[in-house]
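User: I'm putting together a teaching handout on how multi-component assemblies are represented. Below are the sequence lines for each component of a complex, exactly as they appear in our records. Could you produce the 3D structure of the whole assembly as C-alpha cells, so the students can see both representations side by side? Please keep the chain order the same as the input.
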Amino acid sequence: MIDGPHERDHELDTTAAELRRRALSLFGRSLHIRTVDTGSCAVCESEIRLLAAPHYDLHRLGFFFTPAPRHADLLLVTGPAVRAFDDALSEVVAATPDPKATIAVGACALGGIYEADAFVHGAVDRVVPVDVYVPGCPPSPLALLHGLLVAVGRLAERVSRLSLELDPSNP
Amino acid sequence: MTTAITTLCVIAAGAWLVAAVLAGLAAHRRWGLTAACVASALGGVCAVVAGVELALHGRAARLDLGSSVVGAARFHPEPLAAAFIVLLGLVAIAIALYAPRYHEPGLGTAVYLLVYNLALVASLALLAASDVVTFLVAWESMALLCYLLILRHHKRQGVARSAFLFLALGETGFVLIVAAFVILATHTGTMDLAAIARRAHTVPSAWRTAAFLLALTGFGFKAGIVPLHIWLPAAHPVAPADGSGFLSGVIVKLGVYGIALFGLELERGGPGWWGLVVMIAGAVSALLGILYALMERDLKRFLAFSTIENIGVILVALGGALTFTAYGQRAIGALLLITALYMVVNHGTYKTLLFLETGVIEHAAGTRDMDLLGGLIRTLPRTAVIMLIGVLGIAALPPLNGFVAEWLVFQGLFQGFRIPSHLVGIVIVVVGAAIALTAGLALNAFVRAYGIPFLGMPRSARAGRADERGMPIAGPALLAAACVFLAFGAPLVLATLQRVSRTITGIDIHAQLLTSKLTVLPAHADFSSLSPTYLAAFLVAVAVVPVLIYLAGRPRAKSRSTPVWDGGILNFKARMQYTATTHANPVRVTFDQLYRPHIDLERASDDPAGRSGPVHYRFTVSPIFERFLYRPVVWAVRRLAMLCRPLQSGDVNLYLLYVFVAVVVAYAIYAR
Amino acid sequence: MLWFLRGLRRGIVTTRYPAGTRDRWTDALPSAPAFRAAALTAALADRLEAACPSGAIRRRPNLLSVDLGACTGCGRCIDVGGGAVVESGEFLLAARRREDLIKQVPIDADPERGR
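Assistant: Of course. Below is the structure of the complete assembly, with chains in the same order as your input.
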C-alpha cells in the first residue's frame, strides 16, 4: 500500500501535455467548476454538492461552483453519457472556454456500469476527452477533492502506483 | 416684440383653421391629407416660436375679437402659458408629420382631422385667454372636440362608452371649474383674469379656499388625479394613436395648467396647506397610477396609467412650489415651479412619442397586447431605437430629460428641512418617499413595456411578420430629438423657464440655479449640483473608452465563437419566455390587497397536473374606483332623480300652479 | 448566538485535507478491495467474478483483473472471499489514465506453492 507523503508529479511528458499541465496549474489557486449530469442517478451530484458543506469546504482550496459554462475552468461530468443528452453536452463543452479540464466522476461515467447501446454511450470519455477519472459509486467528497487537486496539479495521482495485492509479510 | 408674439399665435391659430378646412374638404384624397398636415405643422412651428418668445420676454400684446353685440373674446398670453404653448406646437408638428402615413385618406379621416385641428385652435385659445368667459368657452370647445376625436372609430365596440366617460367626467369637472370662476369673479367684480389676480386678496379666505378646491377637483378631472382618472384608461386605447398622443401630451396638461393658474396666478399667496393638498393628491396619483400600469397588457392602457403617474409627479412639483413659497422658501418654490414646467414639456415629448410608436406597432404587428408581441427590435429596428429614447426619458434614466427633471424634483423636496414647520416637513418627506417608490416602479414598468414587446422571440405569428415599411418615422424621430435636446440643453431650457418663473413668483434665481453655464444647482449652492451636459459626455466616454481599449489591445490569440449558453434547451419555444403578466407578478403579489384581483382558473380536468388539456388563467384587477366611488354616486343621483320625478307629473294644472307660485315668490322678493 | 456558542464548543469540523492527519471517520468509507494473492485460488477467483454485480472483477488466465472504475464498493467480494479479500482502506483513487484503474492480481493456481 502506498502511504507516503504526497508529492508533486515529476513525470516527463510531451511539450503539449506539459503546457496543458502548466495552464491547468494556473487554476490551482482559483478554479471554477461546472457540473454536468449526463444521466446519472444523482447520488454523485449529492456528493459533489457536499463539497460546499462545512465538513469539506472546497472554497478554502480556491475552488468554486459556477452555473455558467462561460465562467468555468473545469467540467465535472457524471452519468453514463446518455445519447439524448448529446446535443446539450456538446453545447456545454463548446461553451466552456479553453484551457479547460474535464473530470469524469463515478462508476457510470467511467464506463464500469453500462455498456454502449442505443440509449447510452456507456462512458463519458467516448464523447468528451477526459483528464482525470474519479472512480467510486459514489466517490466520497474526499475522493472528489483528491481528483480536483490532481486535475490542477497540486497533488500527484497515486493509483498508478497502487497494487491491490496484500503484502504477504503484512497480512 | 410683444405684438409679434400675439401675431404668431394668431398665425398659428389661422394655420390650424386652414388645416381644418383643408382636412374637412379634401382629406378623402391623399393630397388633401398631406396639405392639411403641412398647414398643421406650420401652425405648430409658429406656436413653438411664439411660446419660446413669450417665455423669454414675459409679455405679449392683448387681442380682443368680436364686439359688444356678439360678445368679445379676449386674449392675452401670459408667461405661465408659455411652456404649454411650446408643448402644443411641438406635439402639433410631430402629429402633423405622423398623420399622413398613419391615417388612410377617407371621410372618417377628413372629419377626424377637421376636429383635431379645431381642437388645436381651442387649446391655444384656452392658453391665451385673458377673460373668464373666453377661457370657459375655449375649455368647453376643447372638451367637446376631444370627445369627437375619441369617437373616430365609433362603430367599434366600447368606443362610444369610453368617449361618453370622457365627456361625462369632463363635464362634471367643467361644472366645478365654472363654480370656481364664478366665486372669484363675483367677489372681485371682474371677469378679466389679470384683474382677478390683482384683487384676489380681497376675497374672503373661506371663499378663496372653496374656489381653489373646486378648481383643483374640476381641473383634476381633466388632469387625471386619482380617483378622478377613470376616463384615461378607457379613452386612450380607443382613440387613434395620434389622438391618444394628443390627449396625453396636451389635453391632460391643460388640466395642470388650470390648477397652476388658480394656485399661482389667481390666488397667489394662499395658505401653505393648499400646496400640501396638491402634493398629497399628486403623490397618491403617481403611486396608484404606476401600480395599476404594471398590471396592464394593452400598451395604450399602460401608457394611459403612466400618464396618470407622471401628472402626479408634476403636481407634486407644483404643490411643492406652492408650499415652499408659502412657508418662506421662495427660491426653492421657484425651483419647483421651473421643474413642474420643465416636466410638462418633457412629458409631452416622451409620452406623445410613445403613443405614436404604439400606433406604429399596432399597424405593423397587428396587436397592442404585450403578451402577443416580441422580437420587434429585429423586425422594426428604427421604431425600436426611437422608442428606446422615449422609454429612457420616461423612466428617468440618465442622461435624458426625465432624469434631470426627477433630480430637480427630489432636490427640491429634500430641502424640506428648511421649512420651520415639522408637520410640513414630515408630509414632504412622506411625499418624497412615495415619489421615490413610484420612480422605482416606473423603471420596472418600462423595462416590462419595452422588453416584452421588443426583445426575445415573437409570441404570436402575426408579431413575427411585423413590417416597418411605410410606417411613420419623422414625427416620432422629431420628438426623440426633442427629448435629447431637452436633456443636453437642459441648462438653456431651465434658464428660459427661470424667466417665466421670475415673472410669476417675482424672484430671480438664475444665479442660484445656473452658476456656471452648464451646471444646475437646486437653488442653494451648498446642497448639490448636476451638469446634464457633462453627465451625458461622461456616459458617452464611459461607453466608448472600453471599446477603444479593446480595439487597441485586442487579444491576438485564436478565438472561437459559440452560441450564447441557454441552459442546453434545444427547442426554445416562444411560450417559454416571460410574458408581461408574469414579469409584473412580484408587484402583483406584493400589492395584492390593493389590486384584489379576480382570478379565473379553468382546467380541462381535475387532475392537478393538468395533463389532459390546457389550463386557462384569467386575471382581472378589481375596479375599486368604479365600484366604491362612481357607482354609489351614480346610484345616489338616480335616487335623487327618482325622488324628483313626481314634480314632472305631466299634469298641466300642476305646471300652472308652479308658474303661479314662481310669480308670487318673485314678486315677494323684488317688492322688498 | 446559540449556533455560535455550539460552534465554539465543538471546534472546527472542517477536514484539514490535503494537509494534516487523516480524519478518523474516513476508516468507515467504502474503499477498493485488497486481495491476499496466496489465498486466491482459481475456484475462489471464479466465485469472485460471479459475485461482483458490476463486472469489476474478471477472471483472466492466471490473473484476476480488477477494474477500480467499475467498483461500486458493495462489499460482496469481501463477503464471498472469506479472509482472502479485505477492504484496502484506499479511496483516493483519481487517475489520469483510464487504464491505471485496471489492476491485475495474480491467482495462486497451485495451492501447494509456498509463501
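A couple of points students might notice: Residues 15-26 of chain A form the longest helix (12 residues). The CA atoms of residues 119 and 155 of chain A lie 36 Å apart.
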